[in-house]
Amino acid sequence: MLNITSKTTKKITEASYLCTGNTNRYRVIIRIAYKKYEKMKYSLYKEEIFEDIKKINGFDEYTLDDLKQDLDALETWGNFIAIQDTARTRTLEEFKNRRFRYQLSSTTVELERTLIKIENIKETSRGSLEISLIERFKETLEQIKVLEEFDSSKIYSWWEMLNRDFKHLNENYQDYISKFYSPKTEELLKTNEFLIFKESFIKYLREFIKGLQINVPNIKYLLNHINDEEAKIRWIVQNIIKYEKENIALDIDYDEKESYELHYGRYLSMREWFIGNLGNISMADNLLESTSEIIRKITIYALQIVEMQTSGGSRKGEYKALIEMFNKCVDINEAHKLSSVVFGVMSSKHIGCDIERETENINSGIYEENATTVIVQPSNRYRAKTANRNSVKEKTEAKKVMAKEILEKRKREKEIIESKIVNNRLLFKELNNITAEERRIFLTWLSYSLNKKDQVWVRNEYGRYYKVVNKNETEKITLRCEDGDLIMPAYEIIFKEEV
């Protein structure tokens, strides 16, 4: 379990100088002090710092008073520890001026070390796929068989070496594989220069895959054997904690539980890297797949490059032969004839028509047959415009007749529907041999009312208010229709009395 303490969550004020308005000045001051610290000169007067600052470009107008203000700010953030120098004080006036020596805090020293590492990181990864890394890890892991003969100091040394080998192996492989998924490498693989060392590079990758397939099974066997002896790995971690507590841990707040979780977690990370966890593919298997994918990618790119070169080379001979043929032509007319054979007609139109020929002779030419007229339409689609000379017709009377017919039809439908309603009630179980249109109307009323959340009165197309009830919810009825039967609950439609 992750142990979060107040030290983990507290604000690091010492890092404030890295992101503020005068960062360019603060970083120069601290870097000068750090370089002096490396030379074992741990405390400095402001005059010594100022002397080195004046040698840097861009600080021509920088004064000693500016330096004093910057040192005060850095002291406030905890980057410098100011110690008053009383050894050379001779008068009260000198004591009042408070001559200080400045010493870097331990946190600032660590920050500068980290920053220097970051500054020196190269843009390109330095990883490699050396099989010796995994062989060395396997050899170190095999020593677990004889750890019972070691004391806690040798167990600790073995554990540190195993962790160092695993870290080196993991970082190198990650850096190396990541290079092949960068745009810069993608472009490199597509260049002709890559073909020069393509074969040796693929051989290098295949040798690595071969070594991986040989060593990983042995490592998996060792890790599975350790996992079967859970007490052994816990005994190893306890010996590591014992050694740390007796020889390394100077802090009185040394947390044995946190240290145990740290070392045991490292073992679980190694196991997961080679064996996997919870059904997930292991990093070793993933590395094997990634390397194989790189080989496939390199082979594809190389094949594409070769095909481009081959196609260009094969046509080059043809072009050379054509040039010689054109060069031997007597005049331009002969060159035109040769061009028509080689390249075809520069601009031609092929017009075909479906006509009945006067002769079936295949040797007959177009000049020997009668001419045919062909109407050529444009290639783009269009509709021929025709003027509409029909005047707008008066349809008022026709509309009145149609409207009258519709109203009469609806009146007849209403009379038929109303005939099914007895005493303002429509009982579905009493309906018999109704038409499809009547069934559609009744079911539309039923559906519209049932979709209402509350039992409210709704209005149908004939202006009558109604609602649906189901007195016996378990009863099922068969609605007889002309086109079939419908099994449904025994619904009833109650109509409001018309006033």
In short:
It contains 16 helices and nine strands. The chain is of the alpha+beta class and 499 residues long.
Describe the protein.
It is a single chain. It is extended, with a radius of gyration of 48 Å. It has a four-stranded antiparallel β-sheet with strand order 4-9-6-5. A three-stranded antiparallel β-sheet has the order 1-3-2. Strands 7-8 form a two-stranded antiparallel sheet. It is of the alpha+beta class and about 500 residues long. Helix content is about 55%, strand content about 10%. A hairpin with a 2-residue loop joins strand 7 (about 475-480) and strand 8. The protein has three domains: about 10-120, Arc Repressor Mutant, subunit A, CATH 1.10.10; about 130-295, no CATH class; about 415-495, no CATH class. The longest helix has about 45 residues, at about 285-325.
Observed structural traits:
three-stranded antiparallel β-sheet; 16 helices; extended; 3 domains; alpha+beta; Arc Repressor Mutant, subunit A; 499 residues
Largest sheet: 4 strands, antiparallel
Structurally, the number of domains stands at 3
Low-confidence stretches: none
Number of helices: 16
- The portion of residues forming beta strands comes to 5-15%
The termini sit apart by 80 Å
- Radius of gyration equals 48 Å
Mean pLDDT: 79
| SSE string, helices as H and strands as E | HHEHHEHEHHHHHHHHHHEHEEEEE
Total strands: the figure is 9
Pfam family, one: DUF2397
Protein name: TIGR02677 family protein
Organism: Clostridium saudiense
Topology (SSEs and partners):
Layout: H1 6-9, H2 23-38, E1 43-45, H3 46-53, H4 64-77, E2 80-84, H5 92-97, E3 100-104, H6 106-119, H7 131-142, H8 152-179, H9 183-189, H10 198-228, H11 230-248, H12 256-275, H13 283-327, H14 332-343, H15 396-419, E4 425-427, H16 436-450, E5 458-459, E6 465-469, E7 476-481, E8 484-489, E9 492-495
Antiparallel strand pairs: 1-3, 2-3, 4-9, 5-6, 6-9, 7-8
Helix pairs in contact: 7-8, 7-10, 8-11, 10-13, 11-12
Protein name: TIGR02677 family protein
